[in-house]
Structure formats: structure tokens, C-alpha cells
């Protein structure tokens, strides 16, 4: 039985649903969660490229998120630079810091690299906390300008202050990112990354320049995380040093693990699921009077490791395999 037409039909239906979702559900809070989900898809996909495909355990990934956010916000506030220019520049500045963090990965692996990245993240958070003249310290930066309108004529322009318009912008960025990552992980570059993940010494023995590949993947991952941070800053319009905290990295890690580490759509599923779950738990916290979100996250993470090591996406793949074999 040929499943390609059915698969194509599901893809088309999925695209139509994604495009029509904010038009069908007009609730602004729901649309806000959709935008946040898109931002976290960019962030989790960037971390998944490092940990899932390259085997580089970066526990300070939130630092790139914060660097992008602060860079773009300060460029807009101090230099009146257009946020549209600030988005890629925030990613580029984060990418430069990715080089600094990528260099130690030449000699460090496993827990040693993880500890180094935690220190890197914490140092940057403390810098943002104490450089009050630039970052306003723990008060954070506020009044960050939103994305400027696109003027097509004197009578027609698109403004990006509404959640619905922001949703379509982040949807474009998410789509481009997933297309880029799909091509990347299935290319020679992606195959080399997987080889380094499985056996770094073996990869070196067959002529793969592991140092160059590690540095490149750190730069790409940092750029995507910084870009996500830039968009977050101009969407929420308020950022603080807490966006570089270890708790943010733990959120990223949990989303990827629950969705499916080392899969293209695992971060997508995990980001959407836990973004909506996190907001739902806020109402529960009002009753129990404790921060129960991290308790739930920890339980989900342990359940994932114990019962579905490949996450939700991996579980669906395992369920679909017998059906495919029977159909043949």
C-alpha cells in the first residue's frame, strides 16, 4: 500500500491548520502562548542540534538566549536601530560568544564540558545583574520597541503589536529554521556530527576535523538561540538577567527530552506541550502556594528517561513501525 499520498494529505492539512489557528481561536492569551511556543521551538531546536546531533552537552544554553535578547534590545534603545536589523545582529553577537564556548569543547567532553558551560552561563548572568549602568541590573530592560511596521504604501501597512501578527512572523522563522536544520542534519555535515557524537576518536581516525565541526555547530546553535532571544525581547518588551538562569536551560532540556532528543520534530512537540502546560500550572500554583512547575517538569523528565528514552516523537515512530511492516 502506497502511503505517500496519505502522508502528503496530512502534511497539507497540518499546514492549513497551523495557518488558520489564530483566525479560528481569537483569544489573545491563546495566541500569546502560540507565539511563546514558536520562540521556544527556535530555542529548543538550537540546543537539540548541539546535544542531540553532536553529543555536546551544553547546560548554559540560556546564555545565548539572553545575549541575543540584551544585544538587540540595547541596539534599539541606545542606538535607535531597527528591530528588524537587531534580530540577526543579536544572533550574530550570540554566535561570537558561541565561538568562545566552542573552543573549550576541543578538549572537554561529557560532564567536564557541562560544568564549563554552566560556569559560562552563570558568569554572564552575574554580569547582566551587576552592570547596572548598561542593563539596569535586576530591574531589567523595559520599553523595548516592538518590531517596526512594514509599510507597503501610504494606505497599507502591517503592524506587529498584536499577538496574531507576531504569530505569523515567528511561524515564518520557525519554518525556515526547521527547513535549514532538516537539510543540515541530512547533509555530509550532519552525518559528520552524528559520527562525532557516536565516536569522536573514530571520527578523527577517518579524517574528520572534529574541532572545526564542533566550533561550527556551536556557532550555528548560538545564532539560533540568540535570534530567539532577540525576538523574545521585542515581543515581550521586557527582559531581565533571569532569562540567562539555569532554570531556563532546564526548561529547554526538559522540552527536548520529552519531545525527542536527536529528532527534528521532538523540540517542536516538547516546546508546544510544555509551554501550554507551564501556563496551566500557574493556576494550580495559586491553590497549592508552591512552585509546582519544576516538580512536574522533573517528574516528566524522569518518566521520559525511564519509559520512553526517545521522547514522544520516538514513541510514535516505534508504534508506527509494525504497521508499516504489516502493510508491506
Mean pLDDT: 87
What's the count of strands? 4
Q: Alpha-carbon distance between the termini?
A: 7 Å
Strand content: under 5%
Strand order of the largest sheet: 1-4
Give start-end ranges of low-pLDDT stretches.
324-328
Instruction: Give the C-alpha Rg.
Output: 20 Å
Number of helices: 14
Helix content: over 70%
User: What is the makeup of the main sheet?
Assistant: 2 strands, antiparallel
| N-to-C order of helices and strands | HHHHHHEEEHHHHEHHHH
Which structural class do you get from the secondary structure elements? mainly alpha
Blueprint of the fold:
Layout: H1 4-24, H2 28-51, H3 62-79, H4 83-102, H5 110-130, H6 132-135, E1 141-142, E2 150-151, E3 157-158, H7 163-185, H8 188-198, H9 200-205, H10 210-236, E4 238-239, H11 246-259, H12 266-288, H13 293-307, H14 311-327
Antiparallel strand pairs: 1-4, 2-3
Structure notes:
It is a single chain. The chain has 328 residues and is an all-alpha fold. It has a domain at 26-244. The protein is 74% helix and 2% strand. The protein contains 14 helices and four strands. The strands form two sheets. It has a two-stranded antiparallel sheet with strand order 1-4. A two-stranded antiparallel sheet has the order 2-3. Helix 2 crosses helix 12 (266-288), helix 3 packs across helix 10 (210-236) and helix 11 packs parallel to helix 13. It starts with a helix and ends with a helix.
